[in-house]
Amino acid sequence: VAVVTGSNKGIGFAIVEQLCKQLGSSWAVYLTSRDKARGADALSQLKKRGVEPRFHQLDIDSQESVDRLAAYLKGTYGGLDILVNNAAIAYKGDSTAPFAEQAEVTIATNFWNTLRVCDALFPLLKPHARVVHLCSSVSDMALNKASPELQKKLTQPMSLDEVKQLMSDFVARAKAGTVQEAGWPQTAYGVSKVGVRLMTYAQARDIKGDDIVINCCCPGYVDTDMTSHKGPKTIYEGADTPVYLATLPPGIKEPIGEHLYERKVVPWAVKPGFTIA
Q1: Which superkingdom is the protein from (predicted)?
Q2: 216 phi and psi, to 5 degrees?
Q3: Pairwise CA distance, residues 275 & 8, whole Å
Q4: Which of 81, 42, 44, 78 is nearest to 58 (CA)?
Q5: pLDDT by residue (tens digit) across 250-274?
Q6: What SS3 class is residue 200?
Q7: Which of 12, 146, 222, 233 lies in disulfide reach of 86, CB 3.0 to 4.6 Å?
Q8: Are 99 and 83 in contact (CB under 8 A)?
Q9: Residue 154 to residues 40, 139, 251, Cα–Cα distance (Å)
Q10: Nearest to 114 by CA among 172, 164, 187
Q11: First-to-last CA distance in the chain?
Q12: Residue 122 has what pLDDT?
């Protein structure tokens, strides 16, 4: 059983299609979306492409929706083998929303609500399960706009509770207008993906036994609604690394608890003088 969050379009849509093709008809691959009509339309498109995933409504901003999916998976299958956390948001560069609002909403969806999905579905993970969080190289860009003190902290191993505190602190600073004084960069999306990356590292350390592997990855700059269709990569090129990680064979020794780009591990990269374009 595989679940891909936020998958009625874009990279998530391509991940579902590729998982269906690679895993075959013995797998139940679930396309999820907030809106049932959009989910049905996505299923129809995929059927024309020769694959037939299943659908379940999922809004990661809703605890009730997440709990409903968890109960369904437990009752129907007794567990879960693949979880791809793809659902995320990003404000456009020309957004007039106050930064405090952008920080609170973006961190809520991309970090806290991804964690909400993990909290609900991790107890269902079967032996040899694979978890993939969609991250971004923008996390490196955000790191390189942070103060040296914060850079040092972010690149050291930390617990999930410490990661949570950092994300809470960033939002509080954004509301108080003291983001930069605290050493944070002025990028809500970038910091949200720093959080996802740190969450990945912490979860991978915490999970014990049963060959459950957790990684995160950057799909690259992909032609999607989120990038206003400016990315040079196709959604299928963006789906390649997430699908690779989701289908790692049993007993794999690496990558485990890593951040990847184009199937290669990418450690934190601190580059003096680096700036966000």
Answers
A1: Eukaryota
A2: -130, 165
A3: 34
A4: 42
A5: 999 999 999 999 999 999 977 654 4
A6: helix
A7: 12
A8: no
A9: 41, 11, 30
A10: 164
A11: 40
A12: 98
184: tokens are 């944070």
Instruction: Take residue 20 and report the two structure tokens written for it.
Output: 């269906």
Question: What pLDDT score does 271 carry?
Answer: 64
Helix and strand element counts for the chain (H, E): 10, 8
Based on C-alpha coordinates, what's the Rg of the chain? 18
Q: Active-site residue among 189, 201, 236, 244?
A: 189
DSSP per residue, 202-253: HHHHH--STT-EEEEEE--SB-STTTTT--SB-HHHHHHHHHHHHTPPTT--
Contacts of 115 (CB under 8 A, 6+ apart): 164, 199
Provide the residue type at 32 as one letter.
Answer: T
Please state which CATH number belongs to domain 2-265.
Answer: 3.40.50.720
User: d(Cα 174, Cα 56) in Å, to the nearest integer?
Assistant: 35
Token code pair at residue 138? 């923008």
205/272 Cα distance (integer angstroms): 29
pTM assigned to the model:
0.95
**At residue 275, does pLDDT exceed 60?**
no
Q: Residue 126: CB partners within 8 Å, gap ≥ 6?
A: 79, 80, 81, 210
